[in-house]
Write a structure and sequence with these properties.
alpha/beta; five-stranded mixed beta barrel; five-stranded parallel beta sheet; binds flavin-adenine dinucleotide; binds 1,4-dihydronicotinamide adenine dinucleotide
């Protein structure tokens, strides 16, 4: 790229937000360049987030099942050994295959991929410090900030990614620690606690709030999930705040204070995972050169069309408002390009599913019971336990329930909350129903194949206005 060349769109950041926008812009016939400094496309999600964590979750679940869940299925196995090096290689194979796939897709759609760090010179020019050395300047009619997020550090606890780790270190440990303490019982905390607990670590999760699962999880589902995870061997300390940490001894020491009147104590562990949330990443972007402001949480301020106060500079994904989820970033990427090329785009923020990939999975969409209560919105509830679902019973995997919330007058679906096997796939059906404004009766009168886990979803819907058949 050279200064004389002007792009229709320059994207800074090649994560899910940035690379999807690059592909979409290419498809729309725009001259587009995507700048990424990491060396590979896919951002946090593909490189150190969604994908590697799911590889570890899937394979640690298999390992744990073979060890502890095969005998009563009539399967006797010989010696079972974990080869952590190959376990990590399986993860790396998944990651590298997918990041290369994304690079191919950019090329296929005519989007230029520039390896380097981008920063604003002014409102139309971006300087790129190239990874291979040297610098270039590109001009853009439109510029999209898609620089993502980073782990929020814990004050006073130095992160070395070996003993005190963020999720990035936690997906790459070289040995199974004997003990692990997780600060923060949100999604990252619980997914990583599951991985290392299954592989043999004694894991304790310390959570500041009175419930696990992070923001948005329905309280009843959160409690059920906690019971299930506790049965799997994960220990929880709720309403407990980590006050300080000390890394000078062989074990990392955390001082914790029970938030509600309990007594202070200290916890020693081999590895500490800091998982207290993520924060937008805009360092080194040169926002000061164009006078762009951030809100109090470091998010780039935008309007409903993703425009900053400089209308041709927009922002999507983790760097701005909304849930920090890959599929949210992807929806915004398509919408923002449509705004630029056609003048209109759309994302339904009331209808973005969340999935926690523990076993069983936890998934939800729409409003939780506590959300509805807080807004004084009337609702009726239908629930159905997986212990009454024939497929879950057959699979000897029937912990959990489906909970449906519907409008008492119109029967319109307000929220669906699932903890149970296959919840992450089942939530797609709930999301479609919510998006199309279905009533719970619409769901319940839709024929579901037998025997499937999804019948639990149908029967929970039935239970909101009538009785479930199998419970
Ligand atoms: P990012 O993916 O963070 O991408 C931003 C990119 O911009 C980065 O690659 C960065 O290197 C680059 N960049 C930044 N500044 C510059 C610059 N100046 N110049 C050039 N490049 C720059 N979400 C889900 O939906 N499902 C999951 O299962 C899931 N699992 C997760 C597991 C973990 C451990 C973590 C940490 C996150 C997970 N997430 C998951 C969240 C998901 O990863 C993010 O929501 C998603 O990656 C956001 O995409 P993004 O493109 O906005 O930002
Ligand atoms: P989170 O916001 O989900 O959870 C953080 C938890 O830490 C909260 O429950 C909070 O109360 C607690 N906490 C904060 N400070 C604390 C303290 N001092 N002591 C004890 N507890 C404390 O954030 P998390 O888990 O770090 O994940 C970050 C983001 O990544 C999330 O927004 C999530 O959307 C995304 N993500 C999504 C995944 C998925 O979709 N499956 C998987 C992993 C991450």
């Amino acid at each position: 790229a050279s200064a004389s060349e002007e792009k229709d769109l320059i994207i800074i950041g090649g994560g899910v937000a940035g690379y999807v926008a690059a592909i979409k812009a290419g498809q729309e016939g725009m001259k587009v360049a995507c700048i990424e400094k990491r060396g590979t496309l896919g951002g946090t999600c593909l490189n150190v987030g969604c994908i590697p964590s799911k590889s570890l979750l899937n394979n640690s679940h298999l390992y744990h099942q073979i060890l502890h869940d095969s005998k009563h299925r009539g399967i006797e196995v010989g010696e079972v050994k974990l080869n952590l090096e190959n376990f990590m290689k399986a993860k790396e194979t998944a990651v590298s295959g997918l990041t290369k796939g994304v690079e191919f897709l950019l090329k296929k759609n005519g989007a230029e991929y520039i390896k380097g760090t981008g920063s604003f010179i002014n409102e139309n020019e971006i300087k790129v410090a190239l990874n291979d050395g040297g610098e270039s300047v590109i001009r853009g009619k439109n510029i999209l900030i898609a620089t993502g997020s980073e782990a929020t550090p814990f004050p006073g606890l130095h992160i070395d990614e070996q003993r005190v780790v963020t999720s990035t270190g936690a997906i790459a440990l070289q040995k199974v620690p004997e003990t692990m303490t997780v600060i923060g019982g949100g999604i990252i905390g619980l997914e990583m606690a599951s991985v290392w607990s299954r592989l043999g670590a004694k894991v304790t999760v310390v959570e500041f709030l009175g419930q696990i699962g992070g923001p948005g999880m329905d309280t009843e589902i959160s409690k059920a999930t906690q019971r299930i995870l506790k049965k799997q061997g994960i220990e929880f300390k709720l309403n407990t705040k980590v006050v300080s940490g000390d890394t000078t001894s062989e074990l990392v020491k955390l001082d914790v204070d029970a938030a509600k009147g309990g007594k202070p104590e200290s916890i020693d562990s081999e590895v500490v995972l800091v998982a207290i949330g993520r924060r937008p990443y805009t360092q080194g972007l040169g926002l000061e050169n164009i006078g762009l402001e951030l809100d109090e949480r470091g998010r780039v301020i935008i309007d409903s069309e993703y425009r900053t106060k400089i209308p041709h500079i927009r922002c999507i994904g983790d760097a701005t408002f909304g849930p920090m989820l890959a599929h949210k970033a992807e929806e915004e990427a398509v919408a923002v390009v449509e705004y630029i090329s056609k003048g209109h785009g759309h994302v339904n923020y009331g209808c973005i599913p969340s999935v926690m990939y523990t076993h069983p999975e936890v998934a939800w969409v729409g409003q939780s019971e506590q959300d509805l209560k807080a807004q004084n919105i009337p609702y009726k509830i239908g629930t159905f336990p997986f212990s009454a679902n024939s497929r879950a019973k057959t699979n000897l995997d029937h912990d959990g329930l489906v909970k449906i919330l519907a409008d008492p007058e119109t029967d319109r679906l307000l929220g669906a909350h699932i903890v149970g096997p296959g919840a992450g796939e089942m939530i797609a059906e709930a999301t479609l129903a919510l998006e199309y404004g279905a009533s719970s009766e619409d769901i319940a009168r839709t024929c579901h194949a037998h025997p499937t886990l999804a019948e639990a979803f149908k029967e929970a819907a039935m239970a909101t206005y009538d009785k479930a058949i199998h419970f």
